[in-house]
Write a structure and sequence with these properties.
Layout: H1 4-34, H2 36-42, E1 50-54, E2 60-64, E3 70-71, H3 77-90, E4 94-96, H4 109-126, E5 140-143, H5 149-157, E6 162-167, H6 170-176, H7 182-189, E7 195-200, H8 204-212, H9 215-218, H10 220-223, E8 225-230, H11 235-247, H12 258-273, E9 278-279, E10 290-293, H13 299-309, E11 314-318, H14 321-327, E12 334-337, H15 343-351, H16 354-359, E13 361-365, H17 370-374, E14 378-382, H18 388-397, H19 411-421, E15 426-430, H20 454-467, E16 469-472, E17 478-481, H21 483-498, E18 503-506, E19 517-518, H22 533-544, E20 545-546, H23 555-562, H24 564-568, H25 570-573, H26 582-597, H27 602-624, H28 629-656
Parallel strand pairs: 5-6, 5-8, 6-7, 10-11, 10-15, 11-12, 12-13, 13-14, 15-18, 18-19
Antiparallel strand pairs: 1-2, 2-3, 4-8, 9-20, 16-17
Helix pairs in contact: 1-2, 3-5, 4-27, 4-28, 12-18, 12-27, 18-27, 19-21, 26-27, 27-28
């Protein structure tokens, strides 16, 4: 006689399997409509390791087929997900970009105002005591998809604006397509000002690259205190969380601010008016290698090699490295600058000679001060990405010229990017350490920095000691680095990765640069050649750069052509006094930022985006982490008044003197682009 209970269990399992298949088809229909690439990836997908099964109790399980079908979840999956979510809400985890005060020498209103806000709210912003999920969550970073039941809990009980899901296992996401209603999840994030970002099966580095592009889309203030939810604890997910916490600060680099962008606007117009040639799209490959020279400690030991091979390579000397080469009686071919302040010209005058101005060609960003360009007989420029000036260059030229991608934060980034965009395929990095074996030895011996006044040297070394940390070394296990130098290293890795056919050699006793070939200095040799170096240089100048032919760009022209939309945004960018709570505050900031980035004029966006991001990040974090509603209200009102006052003064600056050049007397500089660090200017 048949076992009725066994038959019933079999029928229940078949029914459950049918439900899983129906759910999969429903989800595939949704993804076919909204994400065709993902639909094509999974419509005929065959899992390799993690598989769905239905146990004897009719419970859907995710099992590891390579581990004898061991369940992934320690308890019933729905119960596990619900309990995990409840525990998370009791003690949520966040990953914040730490916001430091900037040294203020009276140059910029924004620096003064942000510093004042940090004096008042910095402790609660950077070391919050009150973290709750009962606030608008600008970004929720989730590692692990599993069966997805925790995602359903999130959209049901939390107010999430951007959900960033990282799962290195394609099998896991495939399983969730059978268990949860992705149509409902997608509908939740299809609402106004919401976003769902899926990074499935990607590497940690590729995922981080995708993440850093979000700042311009959703605002840094939505990302600067991301909530982090770890569903699983696989090796890849642990690696991602560690990498994320260490590197997420890169999202905050290079965002610019209004006063800085005004300087860029004025300098770009002046440089165009002066007829400075601009980098073109010529892709021909020069017949000689390029050598990028930074001012790191390793340069001293590499000077003999550079002296021996200087007639068969093209030397790109970056910032203060030129001073070191001057002392060694080596004349570079190109001198690289990226710092926009006028004081850069004063610094250059200290260690350049009349021969340098006559024979060395300056390559610089469009933002660099006209005073710096005027020193050199030959000079050319390239567009800095995400900068107000690049829009002016394209508009005046009538075509989209190349942007010098990954050209910051150090001047050696700028030098390497110039070499790659100029078509060099064989590149050597000398003195580009981006790390220190001794924190007291941060520049090359005989560097111009050896003559720096003691107080400036002490301030710089104290800053290094305070902010440095260890990373992988190139010729040893580890070296010390700083966030700026580490950001420089990662941008070098990006330009190497995306430079087609580029081979880069790294003989420096500094940071390991992935993608560059490690070679010990004593084993380094550069190829012999019969090329006429003078002819190569002449060809580079004529083929790679071209002047923009046009009439004089006047202040009235700039106001009429580029600033009309900017002035129309003034009233909408200001923050109102009436708010009803944290949700209202977030909505105000979010709508204001999104209206800004949707503006028709890219000049308006470039002028305002950085400052808005900076102030909104401080405001949002100070309000979210407030101890009470009363404190939150008082915090918002104080921050609002500070921001509105800054906007008023910023608009006054642009209205009255849009083409005012930087004129601050600041000999050694203190901006992040200007200060030392093995290749800084």
């Amino acid at each position: 006689m048949p076992d009725l209970s066994a038959l019933l269990r079999k029928a229940e399992i078949q029914q459950k399997q049918l439900q899983l298949e129906v759910r999969f088809k429903q989800n595939m229909a949704v993804f076919e409509r909204v994400a065709p690439a993902l639909y094509r990836e999974y419509i005929d997908y065959q899992p390799q390791e993690l598989r769905l099964c239905v146990d004897d109790d009719g419970e859907v399980q995710l099992v590891n087929a390579k581990l004898n079908n061991r369940p992934v979840y320690s308890t019933a999956p729905r119960t596990f997900c619900r309990q995990q979510f409840e525990q998370y809400c009791q003690r949520p985890s966040i990953a914040s970009i730490r916001i430091y005060k900037t040294q203020d020498q009276g140059r910029f209103e924004q620096v003064r105002q942000i510093n004042q806000l940090l004096d008042r709210y910095g402790e609660s912003i950077n070391s919050p005591e009150h973290v709750s999920c009962n606030v608008p969550i600008g970004m929720m970073v989730v590692t692990g998809c599993g069966l997805g039941y925790h995602l359903e809990e999130m959209i049901d009980k939390l107010d999430i604006y951007t959900l960033f899901l990282f799962d290195p296992h394609k099998d896991s996401f495939y399983a969730s397509l059978h268990t949860v209603d992705w149509g409902a999840i997608i509908a939740y994030f299809a609402r106004e000002r919401r976003m769902l970002k899926l990074c499935i099966g990607l590497s940690v580095r590729d995922t981080m690259r995708d993440m850093t592009t979000l700042a311009d889309k959703i605002g840094l203030f939505n990302m600067a205190s991301a909530f982090v939810y770890r569903h699983f604890h696989s090796t890849e997910e642990k690696q991602f969380i560690r990498y994320y916490r260490e590197k997420f600060h890169l999202a905050a680099t290079g965002i610019g601010f209004l006063e800085d962008e005004q300087i860029s606007l004025s300098h770009t117009v002046a440089n165009i008016n002066a007829g400075i040639p601009v980098l073109t799209h010529d892709k021909s490959t020069p017949p000689l290698p390029a050598v990028i020279v930074g001012n790191g400690p390793s340069l001293a030991g590499l000077i003999p090699l550079l002296r021996e091979c200087r007639q068969r390579v093209i030397i790109f000397s970056c910032g203060s490295a030129t001073g070191t080469l001057c002392k060694a009686d080596i004349l570079p071919d190109f001198h690289i600058e990226m710092e926009r302040t006028r004081s850069t010209a004063d610094v250059i005058r200290v260690w350049h000679t009349p021969e340098h101005y006559e024979k060395v060609t300056l390559l610089a960003l469009n933002t660099v001060a006209p005073d710096t360009f005027s020193l050199f007989k030959n000079a050319a420029m390239a567009k800095k990405p995400n900068d107000v000036g690049c829009h002016i260059v394209d508009d005046i030229s009538g075509k989209k010229l190349p942007e010098l991608s990954f050209c910051n934060p150090t001047v050696t980034n700028c030098g390497l990017s110039f070499a790659v965009y100029m078509g060099f395929k064989e590149i050597y990095l000398l003195g580009v350490d981006l790390g220190m074996t001794d924190m007291r030895q941060h520049h090359a011996k005989d560097s111009v920095y050896e003559g720096l006044e003691e107080k400036y040297l002490k301030e710089y070394e104290e800053e290094i000691a305070k902010t440095s940390y260890a990373i992988g070394g190139n010729l040893r296990d580890s070296v010390f680095t700083t966030t700026d130098l580490d950001a420089s290293r990662q941008n070098m890795e990006m330009i190497i990765k995306y430079g087609k056919g580029v081979t880069v050699y790294n003989p420096n006793d500094g940071a390991k640069i992935h993608g560059a070939i490690t070679v010990r200095p004593e084993a380094l040799s550069l190829p012999e050649t019969n090329c006429d170096k003078a002819g190569v240089m002449a060809s580079l100048k004529t083929a790679k750069f071209a002047a923009i032919k046009q009439g004089e760009i006047s202040e009235d022209f700039v106001r009429e052509r580029y600033l009309q939309d900017f002035f129309k945004l003034e009233s909408s960018i200001r923050l109102p006094s009436r708010v009803k709570g944290i949700a209202d505050i977030h909505t105000l900031l979010d709508k204001s930022f999104r209206k800004l980035i949707a503006a028709e004029s890219p000049v308006s966006v470039a002028l305002l985006r950085g400052s808005t991001n900076a102030f909104f990040t401080v405001i949002m974090r100070a309000c979210i982490f407030a101890a009470s509603e009363r404190q939150r209200s008082e915090t918002y009102q104080h921050c609002r008044k500070t921001f509105n006052a800054f906007i008023k003064n910023g608009y006054k600056l642009i209205r009255e003197t849009p083409l005012k050049h930087d004129d601050i007397e600041n000999f050694w500089g203190t901006s992040t682009d200007d200060r030392a660090g093995q290749g800084r200017g």
